[in-house]
Each structure stands twice: as structure tokens, then as C-alpha cells.
Amino acid sequence: VSGCGKGREAKRRGLGAAASPQMSELAAAVASGVAADDVDGADHLQQEQQPENHVVGGRISAIDKQSVHRICSGQVILSLAIALKELLENSLDAGATTIEVRLKEYGQELLEVSDDGTGIEENDYQALTLKYHTSKLQDFSDLTSVATFGFRGEALSSLCAVSKVQVSTRCADKAVGARLEYDHNGIIVNQTPFARERGTTVSASGLFSTLPVRLREFKKNIKKEFGKMVTLLQGYCLLAVNTKITCTNQTGKGSKSVVLQTNKNSSIRENLIDVFGSKQIKSMLAVEYPPPAGRDSSSPSAEFKISGCISRPDHGLG
Predict the structure, then answer these.
(1) How many Cα atoms sit within 13 Å of 94 on the Cβ side?
(2) Is the distance from CB of 145 to CB of 137 less than 8 angstroms?
(3) Contact 28, 1 (CB under 8 A)
(4) 14 CB neighbour count, 10 Å cutoff
(5) 259: confidence class by pLDDT, cuts 50, 70, 90
(6) What pTM was estimated for this model as a whole?
(7) Structural contact between residues 220 and 75, judged by C-beta atoms closer than 8 angstroms
(8) Spatial distance between the Cα atoms of 93 and 271, rounded to a whole number of angstroms
(9) Which residues pair with 194 in a beta bridge?
(10) In a 3-state reduction of DSSP, which class is residue 301?
(11) pLDDT 10s digits, 208-229
(12) What percent of the chain shows pLDDT beyond 90?
């Protein structure tokens, strides 16, 4: 910043030639590239320049924190499919080999995901549902090495805001687990001892009950929402090798019906058979890149690999 520029800026802010020694020090610090927060008096200046959260008599004012939480959470959990996606990815990140998805009335009454993963430590019970709290990373630079599905720490907090959430969990080193109930702000309102196997179960009942318009549309299009959820689940069932995934749905007082199931298969091909049937696999081709015989650890392609199945280029297939 030039000397003339600093003079004009000082006059514009009403500081003029009568600026205090602290202000002169701040201006010099800005000119030399020193952070303003490291200079005496800088914090006081910043507080004076920032407007109050609530302007008395003004038409524009800050939204209260609870409303902000509910509004923003509705932009994270957009549908039944996304709610399932977040819970399913948490289970996979926890190293689960058996995952059970249970729904009542196509997810309208209940969406529950249970797994045999590592479980949740007692010290993390409250942090589990707080916004931007996660075990996946500590700062922005960790994004270059993140190896999990989720990492933002928004899912469970947002799920609490749009439904009633209950969690039961137990770690391998604990004799007894715990059942936790959370309010819409993600705060524990009830905690009781609970006997269960190692792992975690997250239940979300009354999805979108706090968002009346979203709830009305959700109920109106529940079959369509359920169909989208099943399509998404099929993709995870294909990718999750060595993991058994079961999805059931219960309507009314009837028995549970199996929607989808895989059997801890060791390959995507076997998962394809479980999800779409043995007839479908006949029209598929295995794909692997780079080919095993042609792999060169020094080539750029060694940094990634592609494996899976694609449909045959025959007439009527695609």
C-alpha cells in the first residue's frame, strides 16, 4: 500500500492526521504484510468496524441460530436416499462387514441402519451429533489424504434437526453399550446402558417432521423417494465387497419384506448376481485398467486403477 493510498484511506474512515500511535502502528503493519491480529489495538479496530448481529429498528437482522440450523440441515439431508447414504457411509467407514437397513412404511416412519463396526467411544457420544465435528480430518490439508466416504461432520447433526434420532452403540472393549437419544439440536437428552453386540445402530424416525412443506412433499411422493433410495443402495451393494448388506421394509402390521441383500462376496461380479440376478451377469463384461500383466509401477496409470463391469455392446443392451 503506497503512502498516498494510506492517507486517503485514513481520511475516508475519519481518522485523518489525528490518528493514534496504535493506528499508525496498524497501518505500518498492513504495509509490511504483518497480520492485523498481531498488532496491539487491531482487535479493537475490527470490533468497531463490524456491525452488530441485531440492528435495532432495521429491517434486516440476523436469523436466530436454531432457525439457521434447521434451514441449513434441510440442505444436507435433502431426501430419504441422502439420509440413507450418510448412515451407510458411516457404517462402511467404521469397518462394518454386516450392515442391516430397516425401514417402516418405506422410510416414512423409520429409517434405521445397524452395523458391526468399531462402535463409538463414550467420550464421543456428544460430539457425534455436533456440526462440523468429525474424526476423519483435523484441518483443510488433510483433504489430500482422506480415505473415507464422509469427512465434513454434518450428517448426524443435520439428521437430528429434521428427525428424531436415537443411537445405540458398543465398542469391543466395553461389556455394555449405551442407548442415546438426541434432541433436534443434537444434544443428548437421555442416556441409558444397553446390551448389544459390538457396533452401532442409528435410527431416524419422523424424517422431515420439523420441515412442514418438505414433509408434505415427502409423504406425497413416498414411493418415488423409496425407489430412489433403493437405486442408490444398489450402487453401494455392488461396491461393498466382503460386506453383507440387507435392506428390509415393513408396511402396516405385516411382516418385513427383503428389498435387497448381498452375501459378503469377494468381488463386484458376485455382488452383481446378488443384486440383479444371474441372468443379468451374462450380458456384462469385466473391466480392469491397467491390465494386471501390463502394470508398470513407474507409469502415471499406476496411481489409480479401474475395475468393474460394463454391459456388452450388443443390440438392445446399454
Answers:
(1) 28
(2) no
(3) no
(4) 7
(5) very high
(6) 0.71
(7) no
(8) 19
(9) 177
(10) helix
(11) 998 899 999 999 999 999 999 9
(12) 45
Short-list 228, 233, 197, 300, CA closest to 85: 233
Phi-psi region of 45 (alpha: psi -120 to 50; beta: other; left: phi over 0): alpha
* Cis? peptide before 212, omega within 30° of 0: no
The SS3 call for residue 13 is coil
Task: Please report which residue ranges of the chain form alpha helices under DSSP H.
Answer: 3-12, 21-32, 42-49, 65-73, 80-93, 155-162, 212-220, 222-239, 268-276, 278-281
Residue closest to 96 by CA, chosen among 185, 201, 215: 201
Cell of 224: 418415488
Q: Using DSSP, state whether 310 is helix, strand or coil.
A: strand
Distances (CA, A) of 114 to 92, 109, 190, 259, 276: 11, 17, 20, 16, 24
Backbone angles phi, psi at 19, to 5 degrees: -60, 145
- Compute the Cα dihedral for 75, 76, 77, 82 and give only its sign: positive
CB of 235 within 8 A of CB of 146?
no
User: Coil, helix or strand for 228?
Assistant: helix
Is residue 121 within 8 A of residue 135, CB to CB? The reply is no
Q: Which amino acid is at 207?
A: L
SS3 (DSSP) at 236: helix
Could you tell me the CA-to-CA distances from 115 to 81, 153, 188, 201 in Å, in that order? 18, 19, 21, 6
Name the residue with cell 436469523. 63
